[in-house]
């Protein structure tokens, strides 16, 4: 016999967010207003430092059809590469009080397009002993038919040099879709847009992380 | 100094529904087929958004009053309460908990819900709160009704309340559903049955809690939520005490 380990609790099982996730998380999109302040897809405030960008995309199912009831949340560092969270104690990187670094949105019910107005994040230090991570945005998606929220990362295709050194991108083996994590830069009416489409299933399947 | 910078324990996927659960038909085309890439925690995973009390309104956790127009909603008045803890048993303080549900007749206030049961003019169906210093949360609401859905010809969801929880790191992000003790629809539901481990699924069923009921006013249900835990000690470079 051995000594027993202290009992750990088990995580609460996930369940799908369902088709009406908007009621709880984006009530205006469900068709009504109830809260005085709402969480939105606009992360950048007027005094936020950094390059203004729009990120947008669609989520496709295994038949290539856009998922029109998806919830997307993002979490990212500020322009200096620092997260607005007490565990981020990187030296020499200022906190930007006007930037929470988190936002949520729902895809359009007709087109399936989702988007965020934000700033391009700076590089964040890697795990101990690893190189810095290339600028990236963490995404979490939930929807009807998705039993447990899916995590992925958006990297910027025009950061080729930093991407080549990124410790996470370098974990993606050949045959997996490294390019599925790269958002492509466009300019539309003077606005910088990064397009990031997500494929849930099939030959172009996006890399999802068990984090 | 703090435990919020420690790496997360590997998620035990055996207690979660897998992505592909064909009896829940929508999962068939919305489930990834390749293996996920396991990632050790960096700052991107151990950090996550924080929320303040000033962002919430005084009635945000009272679904009986937060959409009341000309009276109170119809239905079974209930009090729902519980703790948010991590796998190590620690309460998760100051974290955002959001919830949404159908009304007493099983109708959602959502532009895409066309079920023939009527909307309740005094019921919105959503709320939110922030846990206290021990991880405790509570809200008042109306018990939701079961709801038919197009899966099999005669599929009915058990009465349920959807929950969304954050924790202290983005890797703890969780959406789930709470069910009610004794509901005969629970073990006929493909979402519940998608959880491979029956004892794990049972942890989504909130027991009736008469001790927390308010006499002559409302019944109560207790629903505790467990988020992923972090490693107890740091293996890399530095050791930290609690």
Structure write-up:
The complex is a heterodimer of chains A (211) and B (242). With 211 residues, chain A is mainly beta. Chain A has one domain (36-199): Protocatechuate 3,4-Dioxygenase, subunit A. Chain A contains three helices and eleven strands. Chain A has helices at 21-25, 27-30, 160-165; strands spanning 52-57, 59-60, 71-75, 102-106, 114-119, 136-142, 150-156, 182-188, 191-195, 198-199, 209-210. Chain A has an eight-stranded mixed beta sheet. In chain A, strands 2-10 form a two-stranded parallel sheet. In chain A, a hairpin with a 7-residue loop joins strand 6 and strand 7. Chain A is globular. Chain A starts with 20 loop residues before the first helix and ends with a strand. Chain B has a domain at 59-227: Aromatic compound dioxygenase (Protocatechuate 3,4-Dioxygenase, subunit A). Chain B contains three helices and twelve strands, in the order βαββββββββααβββ. In chain B, strand 8 (160-165) and strand 9 (174-180) form a beta hairpin. The longest helix of chain B is centred in the last third of the chain and has 5 residues, at 198-202. Classes of the chains: A mainly beta (211), B mainly beta (242).
Biggest β-sheet of chain A, characterized?
8 strands, mixed
Instruction: List the uncertain runs of chain A.
Output: none
CATH class wording of chain A: Mainly Beta
Envelope shape of chain B: globular
Tell me the span between the first and last alpha carbons of chain B.
7 Å
- The average pLDDT of chain B is 94
Number of beta strands of chain B: 12
Structural class of chain A: mainly beta
Largest interface chains and counts: A-B, 83 and 90 residues
* Discrete helix count of chain A: 3
What overall geometry of chain A do the principal axes of the alpha carbons give?
A: globular
Instruction: Give me the CATH architecture of chain A, please.
Output: Sandwich
Radius of gyration of chain B: 19 Å
Helix content estimate of chain A: under 10%
- The CATH topology of the domain at 59-227 in chain B, please? Protocatechuate 3,4-Dioxygenase, subunit A
Sheet/helix structural class of chain B: mainly beta
Strands of the largest sheet of chain A, in order across it?
Answer: 4-3-6-7-8-9-1-5
CATH superfamily of chain A, called what? Aromatic compound dioxygenase
What is the count of DSSP helices of chain B, taking H or I runs of 4+ residues?
3
What is the CATH homology-level superfamily of the domain at 59-227 in chain B? Aromatic compound dioxygenase
Q: What letter string, H or E per element, gives the SSE order of chain B?
A: EHEEEEEEEEHHEEE
Protein name (chain A): Protocatechuate 3,4-dioxygenase
InterPro entries (chain A): Intradiol_dOase_C, Intradiol_dOase_core, Intradiol_RC_Dioxygenase, Protocat_dOase_a
Keywords (chain A): Dioxygenase, Oxidoreductase
Family (chain A): Belongs to the intradiol ring-cleavage dioxygenase family.
